[in-house]
Amino acid sequence: FQTAQAAEWNMPVPYSDAVFHTQNIKEFAEDVNKATNGALTIKVHSAGSLIKHPEIKNSVRNGVVPVGEFLLSRLSNENPVFAVDTLPFLASNYDAAEKLWKASKPKVAELLDKQGLMVLFAVPWPPQGLYTKKDVNSLDDLKGVSFRAYNAGTETLASLAGMVPTQVESPDIPQAFATGRVQAMITSPSTGVSSKSWDFLTHYYDTQAWLPKNITVVNKKAFRRLDKSVQDAILAAAKRAEERGWAMSRSETDAKTKTLADNGIKVAKPSSALNDGLQKIGKTMAADWLEKAGADGTAVLGAYKN
Prior knowledge:
About 45% of the residues lie in helices and about 20% in strands. By secondary structure, the protein is of the alpha/beta class. Strands 7-6-8-5-9-11 form a six-stranded mixed sheet, sandwiched between helices. It has a three-stranded antiparallel sheet with strand order 3-10-4. The chain has a two-stranded parallel ribbon with strand order 1-2. Helix 4 (about 150-160) links the parallel strand 6 and strand 7. Helix 1 (about 20-35) packs antiparallel against helix 8 (about 230-260) and helix 3 (about 95-115) crosses helix 9. The longest helix is centred in the last third of the chain and has 35 residues, at about 230-260.
């Protein structure tokens, strides 16, 4: 990297310019540019245009780029702690999610620090809800239903609920429903709107199953090469970006849930029977996770519950 004298940093992000995470990061970059009077310019490359999502973390680690953003739970194969925010019904609203981030951040930061990475900020996606083609009052109504899964966690959830998991990526959602490959899914209001779910679904249950986070990290060596004043400007901008990003996520949830209803989807809270059934599945999955995550996982959950 160049010295602190008018450096330019390239920053890969996985999502498009329309996504609030990317908009927040562009504001973060502008904040840094302004605060440093151009001593550091951060150039944001959206939608995986510079580096594809699965490679972003290691590209920052290896110094290919100095800074980048990715979905934190993508690292769960390195350490289960990275996926604590995808445990169903552990933290199922924004206040709980914020508490969980405070409890897990020290461990997440320590694990990334060992890879030469420093955490700048993390921002959640809207809470995940259940989309179906029919009324669902309890888990019994989901038995045998073909369910869109997108990772190991959603496959497990489907199986424990008696559904049949089928892997479908976001862009393929409309076709999978149209052809009858799947009849239900759990995803955010954002994905529900971007996939125009009202074309092929009728119900949305606001289960707030989990709030997965995107994280922004910087290469420690690149950071250390900067003047102290530039480092301070980055940290101040990162703190603002985290606060602003959480507020943007809350607004996104309200706006996109309203869009679902405006387009004729029946938006409802889950019945107590459905909620109880899902909570039970959450407890089973948390126990399995704890076994894999060991002492680190126990420490994170302990901090969260206290």
